[in-house]
Amino acid sequence: MASWKYLPVLLIWTWMVGIFDVASACTNCLKKNDTLTCIDEAGGTEYQLNLQSEGTILELSCVSHMKPLNVSFISDCDFPDVEEIEITGCSLPGVSYGDVILHLGIFPENVTTFRVRNGINQDDLEKWHLDGMDNLMILEMHNNKLKILPEEFFVPTTNLRFLKMSFNSFTTLPASLFTFTPFIETINLESNEVEVFPDAFFVNLTNLREINLSNNYLSDLSSHLFIDSSAIESLDLSDNRISRMDEDVFQDMGSLKNLTLLGNLLTALPEGVFSNLISLRHLDLSSNLIKYIPANSFDKTVNLKTLSLRNNSLNVLPDKIFIQCRSLQTLILSDNNLKTIKSEMFPIPETSLSYLDLGKNNLSFARNKFNILVAHDSPLDDFPLSRQIELKVVILNDNKIEFIPSVFNRVFLKLKNIDLSGNQIEYFDYHSLRFFEESVTLNLKNNKIKIIDFHDRVPPIKDKEVILFLEGNELVCDCRLYAFSKIVQGKPVGLAEGPPNIVVKDIDNVHCRDQDDNLEHLNELDLTTLTCTVRRCIGNCTCLHRPHDWMLIVNCDHLGLTHIPNLVDLPSNISVTLNLQNNSISSLQDLKSPRSSQVVNLTVSDNRLSFINETDIPNTLKILDVRGNNLTSLTEPLLKILNETDMILSLGNNPWPCDCGSIDFLNFLHVPSRKVTDFEDIKCADGEELLLDLNEYSLCPFFMQPMVIVSLVAIAVFLLLFAVLGTVSFYKYKQGIKVWLFAHRFCLWAITEDEMDANKKYDAFISYSHKDEEFVNTVLVPKLESEDPKYRICLHYRDWIPGEYIQNQILQSVEASRRTIVILSSNFIESVWGQLEFKAAHSQALQDKTNRIIVIVYGEIPPESELDEKLQLYISMKTYIKWGDAKFWEKLRYAMPHPPHLKKGHRRRRDTDKLELVKSDSKGGA
């Protein structure tokens, strides 16, 4: 059988032997869960032994007794490999610890680390307690309630390197305590009750590197305490009662790197107290009562990297106080009473300062030279930190700062964390967040911020993240919060390169207050309701700007107006909502002003209107409210205009007559798609019946009588005869009639295209995207201009006058051409000017009542969702020519203006086509 098959049996046997060995190693001890429990029934004591780290560490715990440590009842123990011992919860033994260890089967000379912790009912230490532990290197006696340390206590431990006698009750220590520990490197005497350490207490300890005397009762630091201590690198004197120290107390500590004086009672620093600490790296003077620091205190500490003066009573700092600290990286001045800081205080020009804490002071920075709040305009030289270009963290919380300093995003290239919480900032804008680092955290909690003004058109910095904290501010829900709220809610904004990556970490606790004094969650804010008051308005009216739809809301209600006020000139992208309710306006003729062309929402309710002229209605109007006036009818031309639009109407509470004259109005209201908001308020003049509940017979029963019918038939016969005679007369006096019709703009369909186009300069104007110019210039134009019949073509680059407005040249080109050829492609859909050219041509065709547009589909037909609704009509009715069609050139020349010798034969068909296209265009316009 192979030998590996015996392996499980061998492992189980080894484990059992190990248990037997450990359990049998000490008499009067039982093994349970890897722990030996040893009970002295006679003495009423119980101990636990725990062997760790492959037998090199022994833990001895006293479980339940108040008597001195006594393990004499344990015998036959054998722990030859133990090097480290930890005794916990025991009293001092009546014999040396060396004897205790030896009785447990451990060689005292092998022990290098010895810890006694959490002792109970302790007596005083005796000088023999460490006898036999000659090779001890680490001694820790922590939290044992020890009061007296004998002068000769360390005589046996001449090899001691590390000593920790912390959390005891020592009040005095022998002057020669360390005479027999020449190799000691670390001394920790923290949390005792020592009031005075002996002079030259650490003398001749040439290997001593670290001293911890914190949390004692020291009140005075004598210059003799640290005599001949040139090797010490770390000194902790924190949480004592030190109120005075000699100016030369550290004169022999040229190697000192870390000095902690935190939590004492110092009120001032002695002149030159740190002048010999040329190796000092870290100095902590926080939580004292310091009011005064000499100007030269840190002139010699040129290697200082960290300095904390937190929680003192400093009102002012001397000029040039840190000027020599060129290696200073962290400076903490928080929790003082500083009102100003100056650039002269800091290292210039060489600086390493990367962490600066000025929180919880009374600092306020001067505004810019114009004394305005816009922080990004502030002169850089006015800011005291403007030359500390290595800063990464700036903490300025709980001061009196009123704006975000511009140096944060114009000078500090490495800045990553800014804390401005608890200040008096009322405003910030997009410029305040344009930092250089890829990710910056800005804490603006608990300020007085009311306005966060972002602009849709300000381009962001790509690949930057700003993490904001905004809880505890008083944001105002108005239009200035619009763009910022869109970003916070993850909605697209009008930024050319995409929205900036702004994360508000406490967004669930950020609110704004609306006009009704209600708090709104910023992440749930209805952006369509945000408005701002416009200071300059019309007369006594009030104006609001609503950025959601770029709307100017002009409110002129209850002003006693008799005429519509003139609007001011506005940018072309602004629409106007005009509220004129509760005035005395009797006519809308003032809306004919060009400035009214941007009105989309008009409310003229509760005025004195009795008539509405169709020419008074702006083409841009989408909502019309004329409730509560004196209207009795809507003219047929006005009804026609309303039929061709999707205008939303409010017509109630007018004295509508319920008679024959209202039949057209009734039919108008009965159209299913009609958008009237108040059908229930459109009643007969007597105020009882709803107009919609009536029919034509109810309105005009007269039309149903036989005599009326006979009369109507007679009239129809008469009109027929009149039409026949009129037709004959027309052909006899055709030329004169056409001139009269054209002059009075009547029946333009009766005028031939030749007469209308007689003075047009070009046969065709080509509208196309510049991306398709190769097709136009190399294929289309040469073919049309060189082959018979030859056409005169108008092109952008050839026939336009440089410098003139593009919109004017588009209109002139369309009016001067008999046709407009649209090269419809995916590129054309993306062309803004192409869209304007098509609309101009379509408008001209509707005006002339003739089809002037030739659509050439170049490439695939774009999806209808991307097409203007007028273009959709041309595509849906197949009134286009497809490039690549076998008869493309025949169809194109047929659609172009015909030469005179071809027109006679095709006049009838052409006129028919024109009428059909005019009908189609009219539907498209609706």
Automatic annotation (TrEMBL):
One of its GO terms (molecular function) is signaling receptor activity. The chain crosses the membrane at residues 707-731. It is found in: Membrane. InterPro entries: Cys-rich_flank_reg_C, Leu-rich_rpt, Leu-rich_rpt_typical-subtyp, LRR_5, LRR_dom_sf, TIR_dom, Toll_tir_struct_dom_sf. It holds the Pfam family TIR. Residues 760-896 form the TIR domain. Residues 910-926 have a biased composition (Basic and acidic residues). GO terms for cellular component: plasma membrane. It is a single-pass type I membrane protein. Residues 1-25 form the signal peptide. Residues 900-909 have a biased composition (Basic residues). Gene3D superfamilies: Ribonuclease Inhibitor, Toll/interleukin-1 receptor homology (TIR) domain. The keyword Nucleotide-binding does not apply. GO terms for biological process: signal transduction. PANTHER family: PROTEIN TOLL-RELATED, TOLL-LIKE RECEPTOR. This is TIR domain-containing protein.
